[in-house]
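Next comes this protein:
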Amino acid sequence: MAARSAYDYPLTRKGDTVDTYHGAQVNDPYRWLEELDTDETRAWVEAQNKLTFGVLGSIKQRDAIRTRLTELWNYERYGVPYKEGGKYFYSRNDGLQNQSVLYVADSLAAEPRVLIDPNTLSQDGTVALSGTAISQDGKYVAYGLAAAGSDWQEYRVREIATGKDLDDHLKWIKFSGAAWTKDSKGFFYSRYDAPSDGEALKGKNEFQKLYYHKIGTPQDKDILVYERKDHPQWGFGGEVSDDGRWLVIRVWEGSADKNALFVHDLSGGVGKKPVVELLNKFDAEYTFVGSKGSSLFIQTTQGAARGKVVAIDAAKKDAGDPSAWKVLVPEAPETLRSVSHVGGKLIASYLKDARSEVRVFGEGGKLERDITLPGLGTAAGFGGRAKDGETFYAFTSYTWPTTIFRYDLKTGTSEVFRQPKVAFDPSKYETTQVFYTSKDGTKVPMFLTHKKGLERNGQNPTYLYGYGGFNVALTPGFSVPDLMWLELGGVLAVANLRGGGEYGESWHEAGTKLHKQNVFDDFIGAAEYLVAEKVTSPSKLAIGGRSNGGLLVGAAMTQRPDLFAVALPGVGVMDMLRFHKFTIGWAWVSDYGSSDDAEQFKALRAYSPLHNVKAGTKYPATLVYTADHDDRVVPGHSYKFAAALQAAQAGDKPALIRIDVRAGHGAGKPTSKQIEEWTDLWGFVVHNLGMTL
């Protein structure tokens, strides 16, 4: 590739790889970039980073952005507390700590002490606490650690009273938590076999197994509770009922919302009774909420696209028959997102136009009250045991830092447990919700946040963000990078696209497989609305998204390069013909479809960002960003897309790629790396939109 314009792009070798899909030949000249550990790929990464960081380093506003991001990020923040064995556990970050610290306290008023501080486990803060589970007697914590952003976890066990680790050390755990037995002698977890050499970050993840680990024993002595050699793509998540009788196993296949639910009666001990396939049709979503005797409370979309709660008697032979179920909480006009069983109550969290509403029901399903929230935003938490008299939740919105509340189940009142203080004035900003019309006439909601008194003159720098997939709902939430953007005078626009979970399963399915183009039409429709309403103009419009949202940005900028000035596709799925060949990518077929299917291949090729980059096109200023340890969406996606974009760019705008090292898909990323990343992203946007600070 020849160097040109102001950007002396590194030479990227074009190979001669050609694949044939259903009679169609497809060139893949950058296939070699999928091999992450070769000398050639490493040299390419180094050369790209040298160019990118050179360009970013020359942006004059960059230092001021970093300084202000650091100031804003330096605030105390808490996780939602939970109670076990008479003790309280919660996370806290004093501001600029790379990782939040887990604390334990004997009461809410007692001085907490450090239980696990992951900041002590690595010099650069890249070892993260990826999961915790407290034994019911409050004696032990099983905790997972993930290094450099990888999805792989290693679990250890710590004695809470002494803070000392036991010898227990479990490896090759992924997509799993830990579920303790009631006697606190051990826990259930899910793992894969150890990968072959060189395959840990890109090899397929199949044949997950569910194990029981007894404290004080080596991993090779763990009891295999369940596996399915005939279903390599089944995954298992175990949860133990409060009374200790039931191990409820969520059986998942890919990212589909439809799952199975199996049960294992633990009354005779682990493995003494068979695992029963209670609900095995994969015809709906089934989530275990709680139990009372042999009655299991289940949240489900079976016959209710927006969700309901039923009671299933697991002891009866007809337990799997929906006609034998008792409906406790019927389907509502709003979308039911989660339910918890606490203090003899069912606490149900709903979404109404992508904002939270929370209702409290009795165990029999009678509505008792709504929980009053501070405003338009998102509430989450409400965990606990059936015997508890309290629960905790977090509330957040675009200008409301995440605040923790304690909720008294007897009185129905909320009180602030922890409220952070951030160095900004929320009264200067406002959030409104608008509804615009997509290409096919569908009404789509969008949140707009900006300084009060915004003049609609078409000149406001605007950042449009979206996701649109996997039943994920984008709800209002506080974010330091977003706050920085608002302070810069920008408009934050968050579109609730089809493919998400804002309006139940029908909304989700309308943005999947052969209907995936609806998602991109919704996003483009959001941009066109912002221009038509004179909020902004194409020369002032930036777009961003991560993961499936990175795919969204890649598709939008290749379909409508004229509509956007800046594009930030992050850790995106860019090669829609080969995504299912790496790590957990096969699980996304439920949302995307597969190139192995002739009809789905045509749909995938039509929007696949990599395959729709066209030479001679003037693309927006683009900063692709990824990480070398991303084993969720392997970085080869971004590498190939960036190489194709650099070769095709006909305009004078940059086409750069930023490749983070010792980082992954995003989970557990240390604060210092987040500040550096957003310094670069906002610096790139500010410079290319011609903004002044």
About this structure: The chain has a mean pLDDT of 95.
